[in-house]
Specification:
The complex is a heterodimer of chains A (about 150) and B (about 190).
Chain A: H1 3-11, H2 21-33, H3 36-59, H4 67-79, H5 86-106, E1 107-110, E2 119-122, H6 126-143
Antiparallel strand pairs in A: 1-2
Helix pairs in contact in A: 3-4, 3-5, 3-6, 5-6
Chain B: H1 3-15, H2 20-39, H3 42-59, H4 70-87, H5 94-103, H6 113-126, H7 128-137, H8 142-153, H9 158-165, H10 169-188
Helix pairs in contact in B: 2-3, 2-4, 3-4, 4-9, 8-10, 9-10
Classes of the chains: A mainly alpha (about 150), B mainly alpha (about 190).
């Protein structure tokens, strides 16, 4: 057999074409959700962090451009008859939701059959851990008397 | 999917990462079958295809449009995974393991997976000539295996293989020529 014949043989080679729709569908949703929990945590923290950062910087005497608008917005919400109910949502529920989401993303609890014990695994996910700590710090700050601006 | 569609889709993915699902739907089969034809192992092909798409999803933000099809880029990632598979004593698809652990997904135990594995093995058994050739190609250096598999299993042109492997077309032609010669010697021997 010469090289041309080998080339012809390979060119006409019939190859297997198996179906893979099962694993394809199984993986699709987790694939597209990958990394989204961390992002969701940051979005939940964006509003309370903006308000608190603006207030803190103003108190420190180094307000950033636009800080007045942010604190003004907060005062409007706080002074409004209906919108005032948003304050606990912004400062308590959003950080709490962020904490829960990120906690679920790096803590894994399992109960091995017959072992009679719970195994708690902490996955090393620096970003999730950072969001969790920021959320926790925010809650501590908010729940400390006279902490709010 | 045409090149023009891919360019628009790539832009859409930068704005909304969920649009990556369209790439996944369009090309999962190609990548899975490529991995299957290279490894002749259903489980390995499934893991390599999954790892390829997880890495592609993680890196799609860095993918810049230069007229190279997304499919060629996926082939390149899959080829790198196949190199890892060939050299590692126990292939560990790290991204896949992480996502399976985090989301409790078990693609090995998914509905119909066992039937698909059996069907894939039956499909393999039907292609006796392929198994004989695959056995021979599998004994060659990785550089020959890659070009021969892309050319004869995947029916890719020399220009496409050059894009996928990041080599010059002349180099690919040379590797193909020498690879065919090695196959000839081994078949003869």
């Amino acid at each position: 057999m010469n090289t041309n014949e080998v080339d012809d043989m390979l060119t006409n080679l019939s190859t297997p074409s198996p179906d893979a729709s099962g694993p394809q569908q199984e993986l699709k949703i987790p694939l597209l959700s990958y990394r989204r929990s961390s992002r969701a945590g940051w979005w939940l923290l964006a509003l309370p962090l903006t308000f608190i950062t603006a207030a803190l910087l103003k108190r420190l005497g180094t307000p950033l451009p636009g800080a007045d608008a942010v604190t003004g917005m907060y005062r409007t919400i706080e002074g409004h008859a209906v919108l005032t109910y948003l304050v606990p949502v912004i400062f308590l529920l959003l950080p709490l939701a962020s904490m829960v989401i990120t906690l679920l993303s790096f803590v894994h609890v399992s109960r091995p059959a017959g072992a009679g014990e719970l195994v708690i695994t902490l996955k090393y996910r620096p970003m999730a851990l950072l969001i969790f700590l920021v959320s926790f710090a925010l809650l501590v700050y908010v729940l400390t008397p006279d902490a709010l601006p | 999917m045409t090149i023009e569609n891919e360019e628009a889709l790539l832009q859409a993915i930068q704005d909304d990462s969920r649009r990556f699902g369209e790439v996944y739907d369009a090309y999962y089969g190609d990548i899975f079958r490529y991995a299957f034809r290279r490894t002749a192992q259903y489980d390995a092909a499934r893991d390599i295809a999954a790892e390829t798409f997880l890495k592609a999803f993680a890196g799609i933000g860095r993918f810049r449009w230069r007229g190279v099809s997304i499919l060629h880029w996926l082939y390149r990632i899959a080829t790198n995974e196949l190199r890892r598979y060939a050299t590692a004593r126990a292939y560990a698809p790290s991204s896949l393991n992480r996502i399976m652990e985090e989301y409790g997904v078990d693609i090995a135990g998914s509905g119909g997976a066992e039937e698909e594995r059996i069907a894939a093995e039956e499909e393999l058994a039907k292609h006796e000539e392929y198994r004989r050739v695959h056995g021979v190609i599998g004994t060659l250096d990785a550089k020959y295996q890659e070009v021969l598999a892309l050319r004869y299993y995947e029916r890719r042109s020399v220009a496409e293989i050059a894009l996928i492997l990041g080599k010059r077309e002349g180099t690919v032609k040379s590797l193909l020529s020498r690879g065919i010669e090695q196959v000839r010697k081994r078949i003869k021997g």
